[in-house]
Write a structure and sequence with these properties.
The protein has 82 residues and is mainly alpha-helical. Helix content is 57%, strand content 7%. The radius of gyration is 17 Å and the shape is elongated. The termini are far apart. The structure holds calcium ion (2 copies).
Length: 82
């Protein structure tokens, strides 16, 4: 009985942690590429993730990084953008 309660509580905590991580920064694909978590995708991060041609296509304001807004304007719901 005690073990069941502990397991249930652990599952609830894991769920809350996962939900919070999800609420923090954007779609999973964006978060995976954004390894320094600054909410911008640098050329280096895109290259590391294998998206070598995305900077030229996505960087609408040409500031040398792809923001979440720029990313989502192309991928939309497919990448988990809201
Ligand atoms: Ca980044
Ligand atoms: Ca940009």
């Amino acid at each position: 009985m005690k073990k069941t309660v502990i397991t249930t509580i652990s599952a609830a905590i894991l769920f809350l942690v996962a939900a919070q991580a999800n609420a923090q920064g954007g779609p999973p694909m964006f978060l995976n590429i954004d390894t320094d978590n600054n909410s911008m995708l640098s050329d280096e991060e895109l290259n590391t993730a294998g998206y070598t041609d995305l900077m030229a296509k996505f960087d609408d304001d040409e500031d040398g990084s792809v923001s979440l807004e720029e990313f989502c304007s192309r991928f939309g719901g497919d990448a988990g953008c809201q």
